[in-house]
Amino acid sequence: MSSITISHLRKTYGKHVAVDDLCLSIPEGSVFGLLGPNGSGKSTTFKCLLGLLRSDAGDIRIDGVPLAPAAFESLAYVPEKSVLYDWMTVNDHIEATRRSFTSFDRGRCLSLLLQFGVDPSKRVRALSKGMKTATQAALAFARKPRLLILDEPTSGLDPVNQRIVLNLIVEASANGSTVIFSSHQIGQVERAAERIAILKLGSIVLEGEVDDLKSARKIVEGVVEESFALNGLANDARIAHVERDSRIIRLHCNSDADAVADELGSRGAVGIRVLDLGLEDIFFTAVSEGK
Amino acid sequence: MATFLSVDPRSGVPIYLQLIEQVKRSVALGVLAAGEQLPTVKHLALELTINPNTVARAYRDLEREGVIETAPGRGSFVRGNGTADSARVAVHDVARNALDAAVREAKSIGLDRKATNLLFIAALDRWLPEQS
């Protein structure tokens, strides 16, 4: 365990549709990255997944069954905003977590806090935003949960602590746990996640394995005559869109870039290059175009 | 141990392909000798801070291509039997990719077969002159 299946999830706040017909399948032992601009429905999806919000429609299953109280023993959720109590010390939180979860490893929690540079005798009130994020991460990972749901787990952290959190995600996955996390830092998702979904206004605009998306999505660039006519290329299924600046033509491909490059060449274009796209480029294209 | 491998996650080249390329290169250069053990999936994933299933994917492909072999419970090793074989596969792959890219670039800037061939022969004469 634990796999997650979300089918046709819909959540509205009054007239506002926060999540619309969202379907996701997250295999056991994988790391899934959820990307999207603010307000795209990432946190709402997490809250519905955890039963913290009641969805309007849809079905959510963890290991094939609807969420039940027993699932929380092996599930850890780190919300975007700190849920630590200001007036309690970090040590108080460690004690409370130890009492609530049999799998909690206090020694591991203390060693993680040491790595993060958090003094456990401090009151939460005295911690910076980043230190609160780190404390929540330490408490969650010290439980060795089988399923981790992390909403912006690196927000406010310095680069060294961000790397520690990423390595905790990698380690959890290597040990067979399933991780789903959201982040605005595309570079982190690119490292830790094997699969991603990009949300926009509550809907998925792109989903897939990071490496497969990079293999498939390329730009074919070439130099053509002013008189060059696109003909069939304009509605070629392999080509998402065409950019043209007088003699430079750029074909944004969703698949078969090499074949598109050959075709462009056979139509007389010169200087043809196939350009690789990082996840950031793929993200911007997906978010700006929609489907 | 894994310091000979590095990846650029921001690159548009899939991470598993970067790993495959680098392991092949290391085998070709003898940095990884026949029979030598590769880092475990978990070790390499943590060392490079990349997804473990991505590392596993690279190892699976390398195994299928005959560059490494995996003994259940013991780890992955550079293929020992017919050492020369896995090294040769690796050498050829690395060289072919480099030549492919060079010819493609020559073509893309408008050189024809004849002009490209002349450049190729000049490069051969420079780097691999015939022994007389």
Poorly predicted residue ranges of chain B: none
Which superfamily, in CATH terms, is the homologous superfamily of the largest domain in chain A?
P-loop containing nucleotide triphosphate hydrolases
Q: How many strand units of chain A?
A: 14
In CATH, the topology of chain B is named: Arc Repressor Mutant, subunit A
Number of helices of chain A: 9
How much helical structure, as a percent, in the residues of chain A?
A: 25-40%
The N- and C-terminal alpha carbons of chain A lie at a distance of 32 Å
Here the CATH topology of the largest domain in chain A equals Rossmann fold
CATH-defined architecture of chain B: Orthogonal Bundle
Shape of chain B: globular
Name of the CATH architecture of the largest domain in chain A: 3-Layer(aba) Sandwich
- Relative strand content of chain B: 5-15%
Low-confidence runs of chain A (pLDDT<50, min 5 residues)? none
The first-level CATH class name of chain B: Mainly Alpha
Largest sheet descriptor of chain A: 6 strands, mixed
Helix-strand pattern of chain A: EEEHEEEHHHEHEHEEHEEEHEH
**Domains counted in the coordinates of chain A: how many?**
2
Distance separating the two termini of chain B: 43 Å
Instruction: Describe the strand arrangement of the main beta sheet of chain B, using strand numbers.
Output: 1-2
Q: What is the count of DSSP helices of chain B, taking H or I runs of 4+ residues?
A: 5
Beta percentage of chain A is: 25-35%
